[in-house]
Write a structure and sequence with these properties.
Protein name: DUF1203 domain-containing protein
Structural class: mainly beta
Strand content: 35-45%
Number of helices: 3
Pfam family, one: DUF1203
Number of domains: 1
Number of strands: 9
Distance between the termini: 15 Å
Helix content: 10-25%
Radius of gyration: 16 Å
Length: about 160
């Protein structure tokens, strides 16, 4: 069933992270970045591919400003990115694998980048919450966060 308001969930653009890919540990550490070996799945959701990294894979753990706006909601937090990730994932009218299996905090923002609504939802129930938030004409975009750790997961826009 197609939602009333088509939506797209998009991963981060890998370009800003590309200069980190393949760098030695000392270079990463100087920038506050840690290379992490993934031991279990799901444990390291890549914000570019919107999939969990596989055991044995390495990911970069870094601080990222995911809401670079001039409001009190300006925000940054830790994220994982795969060093081999490209291009950014785009899921239209479906929930990406890394979001589908987690408890999420969904936040609605208006055109002035002010939060106008928020709710906690299981990943499997995300489409209904997206529909509810986009039913409000003031909603410009949504941010999904992993509720337990508080990390940014992905942006949601009308498709």
């Amino acid at each position: 069933m197609t939602p009333k308001t088509p939506y797209a969930i998009t991963g981060l653009d890998p370009a800003p992270f590309a200069q980190l890919f393949g760098q030695p540990e000392a270079v990463l550490a100087a920038q506050g970045v840690i290379r992490v070996a993934v031991e279990t799945k799901p444990s390291a959701p890549c914000r570019i591919t919107l999939e969990d990294a596989e055991p044995g894979e390495t990911v970069l753990l870094l601080n990222h400003e995911h809401l670079a706006v001039d409001t009190p909601y300006r925000s940054r937090h830790a994220i994982y990115v795969r060093e081999t990730a490209a291009p950014a994932a785009r899921y239209v009218d479906e929930v990406p694998p890394a979001l589908a299996v987690r408890l999420l905090a969904l936040r609605a923002f208006d055109a002035e980048d002010m939060m106008i609504d928020a709710e906690v939802v299981e990943g499997a129930e995300l489409p209904a919450m997206i529909e509810r938030f986009f039913a409000d004409p003031r909603t410009a975009y949504l941010h999904a966060h992993y509720a337990r750790r508080g990390c940014f997961a992905a942006r949601v826009d009308r498709a």
